[in-house]
C-alpha cells in the first residue's frame, strides 16, 4: 500500500506530529535496506531514492520517492528536488556520492530539505587520496598510500610491496561496475596485471593484515558548534570477502576498548572544521 503522508498526519496525535516529516533515504544495497528498516522501527515515514536495478526495491519497506523525474547520478539531485511536491523532508544520504550531493546543495534547497552532514569538509573525507593527504598532514597513523597516475609510474614506483591494495579514489562507481572495492596484489607483477581494470588516477595502499575481529569502528555525532554529542564503538566479528569485504557481524564494545582513537578522531575533526 502506498504511503500517504497527509493521511498519516491526520491520524497521528499532536505529540507525535514531528515524526511525520518524511525522510528521503538516498543510496543502495544493504546500507539503504538497513536504514529503511531502522526508520520503519522508529515509525518515521520514509521514501527511498536509488538505482533502478537495486534489490532494495523488492523490500516491503521500500517506498519510491513520488516523482516522475529520473536521474542517473547523485550530482543531479538538485534538479530532482526542484520538482518534488513535498513541502519538506529530511535527506539521509547512505553512500559517499549521495553525501557529497547533499552537502553541496544550494541554500534554497538545503533549507527545504535539511540534512546532517559535515558541509565543506565532505570532499576531503570521501575522496580517498585527499583523505590520505589529510592524515599525513596531521600525522594521524595510517597505511602507506600513494597516488598513481599511469601504469609506467606503478612499474617504477619505490613502493615497498608486501601485500597491497589497488583501489579507486571513489569506490561507488567502481563497485557498481566491478562488484569489488579493489584488488589485492602481493607483488609489483600482480599489481601490473590488474591495473588495467582501473581508470587513472588510482591508489596503491599498504594492506594491514589481521583477522576480521581485529577491526574496530568508532562512530558518533558532532554538532555544528564542534561538540561531540555521542560516540559509539563496535567490533567487527566477521566480514565477506575476508580481505576487502563488508562487515557481516559486529558487536558494540566499551569506548575504552578503542584506546586513544577517540582523542585522535576529535583532534582531526577539530583541525578540519
The strand line-up of the biggest sheet is 4-7-5-6
Summarize model confidence as the mean pLDDT: 89
The helix count comes to: 11
The CATH architecture of the largest domain is 3-Layer(aba) Sandwich
* Classification by helices and strands: alpha+beta
- Summed up, the domain count is 3
Point out poorly predicted stretches: 1-18
Separation of termini? 44 Å
Q: Give the fraction of residues assigned to helices.
A: 25-40%
Oligomer class? single chain
Q: Estimate what percentage of residues fall within beta strands.
A: 15-25%
Shape label: globular
* CATH fold call of the largest domain: Rossmann fold
Protein architecture, described:
The chain is α+β, with helices and mostly antiparallel strands and 273 residues long. 32% of the residues lie in helices and 21% in strands. The strands form three sheets. The chain has a four-stranded antiparallel beta sheet with strand order 4-7-5-6, with helices on both faces. It is globular, with a radius of gyration of 21 Å. The model is unreliable at 1-18 (pLDDT under 50).
Amino acid at each position: 500500500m502506498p504511503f500517504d503522508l497527509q493521511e498519516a498526519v491526520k491520524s497521528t496525535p499532536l505529540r507525535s506530529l514531528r515524526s511525520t516529516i518524511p525522510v528521503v533515504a538516498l543510496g543502495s544495497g544493504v546500507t539503504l535496506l538497513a536504514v529503511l528498516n531502522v526508520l520503519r522501527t522508529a515509525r518515521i515515514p520514509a521514501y527511498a531514492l536509488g538505482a533502478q536495478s537495486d534489490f532494495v526495491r523488492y523490500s516491503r519497506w521500500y517506498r519510491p520517492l513520488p516523482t516522475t523525474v529520473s536521474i542517473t547520478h547523485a550530482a543531479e539531485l538538485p534538479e530532482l528536488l526542484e520538482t518534488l511536491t513535498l513541502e519538506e523532508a529530511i535527506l539521509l544520504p547512505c553512500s559517499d556520492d549521495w553525501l557529497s550531493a547533499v552537502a553541496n546543495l544550494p541554500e534554497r534547497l538545503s533549507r527545504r530539505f535539511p540534512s546532517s552532514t559535515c558541509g565543506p569538509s565532505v570532499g576531503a573525507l570521501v575522496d580517498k587520496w585527499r583523505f590520505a593527504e589529510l592524515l599525513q598532514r596531521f600525522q594521524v597513523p595510517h597505511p602507506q598510500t600513494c597516488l598513481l597516475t599511469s601504469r609506467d609510474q606503478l612499474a617504477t614506483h619505490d613502493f615497498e610491496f608486501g601485500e597491497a591494495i589497488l583501489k579507486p579514489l571513489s569506490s561507488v562507481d567502481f563497485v557498481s561496475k566491478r562488484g569489488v572495492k579493489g584488488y589485492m596484489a602481493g607483488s609489483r607483477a600482480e599489481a601490473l596485471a590488474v591495473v588495467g581494470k582501473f581508470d587513472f588516477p588510482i591508489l596503491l595502499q599498504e594492506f594491514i593484515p589481521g583477522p576480521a575481529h581485529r577491526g574496530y569502528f568508532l562512530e558518533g555525532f558532532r554538532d555544528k558548534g564542534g561538540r561531540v554529542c555521542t560516540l559509539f564503538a563496535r567490533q567487527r566479528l566477521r566480514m565477506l570477502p575476508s580481505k576487502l569485504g563488508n562487515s557481516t557481524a559486529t558487536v558494540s564494545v566499551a569506548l575504552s576498548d578503542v584506546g586513544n582513537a577517540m582523542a585522535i578522531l576529535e583532534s582531526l575533526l577539530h583541525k578540519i572544521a
